[in-house]
């Protein structure tokens, strides 16, 4: 009896320890998720760099260096979700800032979650920490900046820690109540002598059954399993074959925002095949040299172009969009014949510092557009007969699906 009891108690302790470990694991996951500088970098680069730098530099809006210290996080979340609303509310800081920046309106980002905004702040803080202290300012401000950052991060961490502590205490209470009800069950077993005769394994199994029947335990277990399955499913869904959001680092820091955006160089100046052929083409170093044999020669990034030409080795650009071999896609069919804009499929590349895949590029994506999109028949004599035939028994205009855009063989070799 004594022996069994000790085992039972040890088991209970073990369970508590195991649960604590699982919770600890979640805690680490949650805290990383809450402010992930890598995620923040992505979000910042995709949404904010057109107007903000992570440094002191003013682009269109103010430099965001030190923003985590300058404004409380609640304010930042409200601001990013809807700057106009904050200004309209009469918030003095916002109104002053708005006037200082000549009443330039910042875009609203209602879809960014609080966690994502915190990640952006974490990224900006990390950038400031990584940047060397400016020599002119001397050592003092740099030394002052470090603890300030620490404290803001510390503040965040504290909230998370307190929340986790609360959860742990609740779980502990639940566990203790399970333990006490179990020991009650054990003590009212009809015959101690009989109980002693029952083999240890069987007793353990019975205790297991009782535990399983306990509703608090059931809900807890169900919650844990749901969380685990949910996380696995989300990870898997993002993992398999779909690369939406993929934005690899390139060997040269080539910026579309600068070239296609600020300097308005036509897409087909570089992507020479995009209106003529199947592939759009990635420009060779020679095309870069049309300009860079005189522009910014001294830049280390431009030096990389020279090196590639000297060695006669093409620049190893990392491919962003990539359909599997089984699918056939033709650019000129869509841009030239179909009259679509690049942004219909690629998003606004002229605003991207680093190219990012914006569409899923799945079969469903192609088909969906073919179902919805009218064929651009204007001024195309080739379609005149078809349109005439089509409008005889259809009210709707000719869609891509009506010209065979859903036929397997059109897209598969
Ligand atoms: C279209 C340009 C534009 C974009 C895009 C933009 N902002 Fe702004 N932002 C501004 C301007 C301009 C201001 C100055 C206030 C004003 O004029 O409304 C500002 C102010 C701010 C401020 C307050 C700065 C301070 O010094 O207190 C924060 C924080 C901020 N933006 C964050 C962001 C974040 C985060 C993103 C990306 C998710 C973003 N902004 C995208 C233009 C932009
Ligand atoms: C000055 C030359 C230049 C201009 C102009 C230019 N691009 Fe690019 N583009 C490049 C280079 C170089 C790459 C490969 C490196 C990279 O991905 O950033 C590229 C890559 C791309 C990619 C990704 C290719 C892949 O690997 O899947 C797309 C999409 C793209 N450009 C679209 C555009 C659009 C749309 C425009 C016009 C708004 C444009 N480009 C204008 C040079 C240019
Ligand atoms: C039609 C002219 C033109 C072409 C073609 C062109 N660029 Fe540029 N590029 C510019 C201009 C203008 C700048 C901005 C220079 C400045 O900031 O003073 C620039 C800046 C850059 C920079 C930033 C350099 C730095 O250190 O600030 C890089 C990197 C660059 N280009 C790479 C390329 C690559 C790679 C290609 C070929 C795929 C290319 N460019 C083709 C005009 C061009
Ligand atoms: C109907 C959708 C669609 C439109 C419109 C479109 N693209 Fe693409 N683009 C794609 C797809 C899909 C791929 C991937 C092709 C592959 O992997 O075979 C791609 C790939 C690219 C690439 C990588 C190199 C290549 O040829 O595979 C570049 C560069 C590019 N597009 C530029 C452009 C530019 C510039 C425009 C506008 C003039 C444009 N695209 C319009 C769907 C589109
Ligand atoms: C943004 C809308 C859009 C998307 C996305 C799109 N297409 Fe299209 N597609 C069109 C339009 C519009 C046409 C009609 C062009 C024309 O007038 O011939 C077309 C035509 C075609 C055709 C010729 C059909 C025929 O019978 O003549 C093929 C093949 C095709 N698309 C393949 C693809 C593939 C593969 C994808 C996905 C990787 C894709 N398309 C994605 C709009 C789209
Ligand atoms: C408008 C273009 C288009 C049409 C029409 C089309 N497909 Fe696809 N299909 C694609 C593209 C693009 C992919 C690759 C998608 C990916 O990698 O996720 C694909 C992938 C596939 C795959 C491979 C799926 C996988 O998981 O690798 C099969 C099988 C397939 N298609 C069958 C068909 C059949 C059967 C039809 C006719 C009923 C058809 N497709 C019609 C564009 C098309």
From TrEMBL:
Residues 35-128 form the Cytochrome c domain. InterPro entries: Cyt_c-like_dom, Cyt_c-like_dom_sf, Cyt_c7-like, Multihaem_cyt_sf. It comes from Arcicella aurantiaca. The keyword Metal-binding applies. Residues 1-34 form the signal peptide. Gene3D superfamilies: Cytochrome c-like domain, Cytochrome C3. The chain crosses the membrane at residues 159-179. GO terms for molecular function: electron transfer activity; heme binding; metal ion binding. CDD domains: Cytochrom_C3. It holds the Pfam family Cytochrom_C. This is Mono/diheme cytochrome c family protein. Keywords: Heme, Iron, Membrane, Metal-binding, Signal, Transmembrane, Transmembrane helix.
